[in-house]
Amino acid sequence: MDLPFALAFVLLLTSCYAIDEDFSEELLLRPLPDGNVLAHFHFASTLPPVDHYGVHHRLFPKAIFQLVRKFRIKEMELSFTQGRWNYQRWGVGDPIAQLAAKPVGVELTASLDVPEAEVDSTWGNLTHALSGLFCASINFLESPTTFLEPWFSWRPEANWTGGGGAFDAPGVKRVVKGKKWSKSSRTRYGALPREAVCTENLTPWLKLLPCRDKAGLTTLLDRPTIYSGMYHSQRLIITSGDFDRDEEGTTLEQTLTVVLRKPAVSEGLSSKLQDWTLSGLFGSKLEGKCPLATTSSVYLELEESLAKHLAGDLSKETRINFVDNRVFSLSSAPSRVLASLSGSLLLEYEAGTHSELDLGVTWRAPVDWSPARGRFYTSRYLAGSGNARGSIVISFRANDGPSGDCYSPGIEAVEYVDIMILQMIPWYVRLYGHTLQVSLDGRNVEFWSVVRLMRFTPAEDRKAPAAVEIALRVSIATQAVTLTIQYDKGFLHIDEHPPDANRGFDLPSAVITFPRCRVFKQFQSDDVGHSHILAVVQVVDCFVFPSPSFVFALLLQSQRPMQIYSEVSLMQLATPDFSMPYNVITLTCTVLALYFGSLLNALRRRIGEEERESKEGKKAGLLSQKLKWLRNEKHMRVIKVILVVIIGVAVNHYLSSS
Amino acid sequence: MGADGEKDRQAPPLKGRLLARLAVLIVRHAALVSFVCCVAGIVSLMLLPVLAKSVYVDENALLPGSARATFSHYDTLKAHDLAREIQTLLSSSTDPQKDFRKWLGDRLDALGADYYFHRFCPPTRSFSILGFLSTSHTYEAGKHCLVDGREQTPGVNAVGILRAHQGDGNEAIVLVTPFELENLTAENAIAMGLSLSLLDLLSRALWLAKDVVWVAADSKYEKYTAVAAWLKEYHEPLVSDSSFEGMHYTQDGNSSRDIFFKRAGSITAGFVLEFTRGAGATKVSSLEIHAEGSNGQMPNMDMISVVNLLVSWRQQFHLTLEGVPRIKDWQWLRSVGYVFEIVGKKAAELRKAFLSHAKASFTTAEDYVNGVSVLLRSCWNQMLGVPTGSHGAFRDFQLDAVTLEVVSTDLEHNMDFLTNFGRLIEGVLRSVNNLLEKFHQSLFLYIMVSPNKFVSISTYIIPFGLLLSNFPIQAAALCTSVKATPGSWTRAILVVILVETWSLGNAICPAILFHLFSSAPTRLAVWILLSGLCLAPVFCLRSDAHASDDWYVPLKSLTLGLTGIALGILSAVNFSVALAGALLLVPMCLSAQPFSSSWRALWKPKSGVISRVNAVLAPALTCFPLLVVLTILARESAGLWSFVELMWFWGSALYVSAFLVFLPCSILCLYIFFS
Question: Which residues in chain B touch residue A570, judged by CB atoms under 8 angstroms apart?
């Protein structure tokens, strides 16, 4: 995953300043092209290494520290997401989109520093602990049918662009054998697409913050507002160097991304951009900072294509009036402006310095800008109808428009695109490996001419999901890539169905990585503000950083491969009629009763004997004498009348009561 | 028969197990039993509208009408504005196709919807024997479509996907508005305007949990084709085909993004909105529901009952179902209705007297006649197997959909009506949106009698069962009553096999002739000639075996047995066809006997009343289908071939049953009659 890239710098930072605990809070706001507003909260707590600092903490949450110690977590990422990240409208190829976009439901990735044999059991225990901590059913990830071990997708060492990767020999068939690759991997990945996210998950998450939601940026988190937005994703990222590199401590990052709906307007058909203020969006102004935080800042980000509208002013190398220009006006002046090399702007506001910050944007001119959509419009869907079979299709279509900061180190002229797909498929979807097909631009091509690396682990019934990892390399001119694989739908036992089986079964998102496409921003402080230039990523030096306030900016600067999550799909299986067992039991019992009744009758009854007995009636016992009494017509008639009356009364009673 | 009855009474008492005794008893009194069955079957058939149950919403999660509809006059005004905008755009534009698409794209984009244009060609009507039951057509669009040998521009559907703000995008509701750009009527424009206005409302709705897909179906080549083409691409995309190349020639001002085929999860339900101008000067606007899909498949009944519930709850519409209008003038039916009304009233009084809680409801004669009219129409539609609208395309993919057709004369000035219709659609969408699971537990096998009454399978299977039971009883009775002469069974089997093979050949014949000859009359003539020639030897197979009077009995009993089995199977495929078949074949098969023997029975002084009646009826009943076929051939020979083509195109069960059940059965009866 992107964690190693992202955190290398954070760790570097902590190694320089790792003498005390530290907490920082930051909020990034970005107007989106469709008029909605993205708010990305970022809280980071760092803890110096245990060896130097001991185990008694001021700020760092104890619960997380204990988790790290107990399960020996090297890296862990947990996300709770509601709604879908709209890649087409909100962007793919920029760092914030990469940080924000997560699949629906819960996703957990963890890298554990335990012996290989214990990884699965430790993972199971970890899911239970997290489940208790966050009031969510993460414990469902304990079952081996719900998680897998990624071979390439999450691993920095499988850096295919560098030497030694499996990408070097074109056209050579490579189905990677399990042992070679999985040897050192102690990473597990699992997702629960069905998990509903709610405030009960947010409260424990807030509890981990030193100021909770009593002071600082978190006071903005009005529950109805953030849960009625269009997208809501809450994440928890833990990195710890305690187990292998002693000088690095533990970092806890908590992020919350919300896309807030643009304010409602009367004429819905034509309006697009809407003015907004912090108080208008969240219902309250920002008052002060969390006293325990070393940094507390608010950023306003303007994307390249939006910042270009101000470009006329930029070229003159004069001060851009951010507060009031021809495109928009801001309610207050930023304390600092950072510009990335690609042209996007980051306006910084210190939360502590303003007694009351109510940041707002008022649009002056109708501007239209498009987000960085990435090279491909990606979608995954299930084709076919009915309950028997179908096929999974992953399709890439070339996008027009800006593709974003996509940087391929080492290669100047990019001639091809690498795509890495990780797809976990539940065992009841029975894949047909031979039907796996790739087509480029509408033509089927020979599979191994495009596929460089493939891992295909078949599912085991009720034990393990199927895992498919495919690395593709296609020419940059390719307009469409489609992968298909056919499947049959399996049958589940009646007790394996969830309570709402007729809703369908969720197929987790495919994780699609573009390893050669590095998403990051390189910032330099604008002339307007301070004069120092932030480090170019490769040559990081401790002393370049003026203060730890750049944790966030650093995060944006860190190189990470572009990653996209596909849609979650719903698959209809042939569900039984759940009232059927009752019917079957009733029917079976009736048939059995009839069978045994007649069988016993046939075995026991002796007609000849009966006839003889009835002739010798006088010798009969008490019972037959009674029966004889019944045979008397007069008595019989009385009994019949009584019976009819009883039945009549019963029927009348039943009908009137029902 | 009277003599038979006397014989029965003198017969020794029955012995053996109860079931066996019962069977023997039934077979012995076969004539009586089948007479009773026939009468009961027809009476219960007549009773169907009376026995109809009220519709109910089976899926609790639908919660129809639980929320206030927000569609207002403001939205209606917007719909009118949009409709006007479309009309002025089309009248002023030099390239209406392109401008309209651009306009629609901008509108949808402003709503925050993903949109794209889907190109398709109408399928070619081909005869292929293997593809008969799997009606799979291709709608691939190249640069041009080849329609009837001429090149034409492909149809272009405009599709907008409104992503639910907080939904996970797993499920979708489809809204279809057919339109025809070449001759856009005022109603059509308003339908488009209303749909867009509704989408605008939905784009702001907080409650939306499922994506809404709006398909503006280009009905240049029939509405059904447009929707079917889109659904086909949605569910069975052609990965490697010319569709990719197709991308390049649609660059009429659209970026390539506009033609990516986008999807929105599995489809839960579909609604087709149609506005048509009502005939005549009546200003009453009404709403008609169409639901029959191909081969008589019906959508889940909740689709209809939700609409009905919302309509009857708000009391704003006149909801109707298509009926056979002429039936309402039939006086005899009305008098039957009166009889049922009187009986119903008495029954209701009795019920009320005994059970104080019971509702005293009965069917009036008016309701009865209307019910019969709707029921017959519904059965007729199911029987033809041709869907009654573009909703039929959904059923082919096991999705539930209905068409809501607004029939009005003056939509422009009928604000209230449009607003109410908008509210209704909003309510229905909201209801389906509430659904957590796919439709799975309600009724799929039913026939509507009125918008709020239906006959479920548990009821309508009774008359059919009663009629069908004649076949095995009579076959068994015939088998046991007569001592077979040696060789008669062999001969019967031979004849039956020959006739069945001939029928099968007849059924396949059109597919072969289609490729051999080009003109329809030639094909038809060759077909009839061939089948006639092939049948002649069978009729010449009359041997000298007519020694006894009962020589035909094995043949008849075989015919009865086979027909009974075939009809039973057919009832599972398409009930209406099976019911019609039973009504037609029961009297014919039961009365079949050689002309000579019926002649003799008529004049024999000793023969009973039943035999005489039978003797009179037999020729009429047996020759009836022959006469019908000859009449059709004489009068409708021009349309017959195209009808056959239509049946092939839809893979109608009627065609299969006509050739594999009705035809052999009537030929065998004729064979018996003439020999």
Answer: 170-171, 265-266
Q: Do B244 and A480 touch (CB under 8 A)?
A: yes
Residue B338 to residue B359: CA distance in whole angstroms: 20
DSSP assignment of A128-180 equals HHHHHHHTS-GGGGGSTTSEE--SSTT-TT--TTSTTSTTSSTT---B--HHH
Residue A83 CA to residue A282 CA, distance in Å, equals 19
Length of chain A: 658
Residue A38 three-state SS? strand
CA distance A492 to chain B (A): 18
CA dist B576 and B570 (Å) reads 9
Tokens of B600: 């003799």
Any bridge partners for residue B453, and if so which? Answer: B54, B450
Task: Give me A281's structure tokens.
Answer: 């969006």
Hey, are the CB atoms on B243 and A379 less than 8 Å from each other? no
Residues of chain B with Cβ-Cβ distance to A86 below 8 Å are 163
**What is the Cα–Cα distance from A365 to A312, expressed in whole angstroms?**
15
| Beta pairing class for A250-260 and A328-330 | unpaired
Structure tokens at B238: 């052609």
B202 phi/psi in degrees, rounded to 5: -70, -30
Out of B206, B235, B356, closest to residue A228 by CB: B206
Task: Please choose, from the candidates A45, A546, A538, the residue with its C-alpha nearest in 3D space to the C-alpha of residue A338.
Answer: A546
**Residue A203 pLDDT grade (very low, low, confident, very high; cuts 50, 70, 90):** very high
Nearest residue on chain A to B394, judged by CA atoms?
Answer: A385
Nearest to B235 among A84, A385, A400 (CB): A385
Q: How sure is the predictor about B652, in pLDDT bands with cuts at 50, 70 and 90?
A: confident
CB contact under 8 A, A104 and B168: yes
CB atoms closer than 10 angstroms to residue B475: 22
Handedness of CA A261, A262, A268, A271 (dihedral sign): negative
Closest-CA residue of chain B to A577: B441
Q: What are the chain A neighbours of B438 within 8 Å (beta carbons)?
A: 502-504, 572
Q: What is the 3-state secondary structure (H, E, C) of A252-294?
A: EEEEEEEEECCCCCCCCCCCCCCCEEHHHHHCCCECCCCCCCC
For an interface test with A, the pick among B170, B254, B259 (most A C-beta atoms closer than 10 Å) comes out as B170
What are the tens digits of pLDDT across the range A209-233?
A: 999 888 889 999 989 888 888 899 9
ipTM value for the complex: 0.85
A398 to chain B, closest Cα gap in Å: 9
Rounded to whole angstroms, the Cα distance separating A279 from A361 reads: 12
Q: Concatenated DSSP letters for B24-76?
A: HHHHHTHHHHHHHHHHHHHHHHHHHHHHPEEP----GGG-TT-S-----HHHH
Q: Which residues of B touch A506 (CB under 8 A)?
A: 170
User: How close is the nearest chain B Cα to the Cα of A270, in Å?
Assistant: 6
Q: Are A656 and B356 in contact (CB < 8 Å)?
A: yes
> Residue A377's beta-bridge partner residues?
A397
The minimal CB distance from A384 to the residues B200, B236, B244 is found for B236
- Nearest Cα to A172, choosing from A453, A455, A387, A428? A453
Beta strand A328-330 with A37-47 is unpaired
**How much of chain A, in percent, has pLDDT values that exceed 70?**
77
Q: Chain B: residue nearest A90 by CA?
A: B112
- SS3 call for B503: helix
Which of chain A's residues have a Cβ under 8 Å away from the Cβ of B356?
A: 656
> Could you give the CA distance from residue B653 to residue B649 in angstroms, rounded to a whole number?
11
pTM: 0.86
Which residue of A lies nearest to B237 if distances are taken between CA atoms?
A: A383
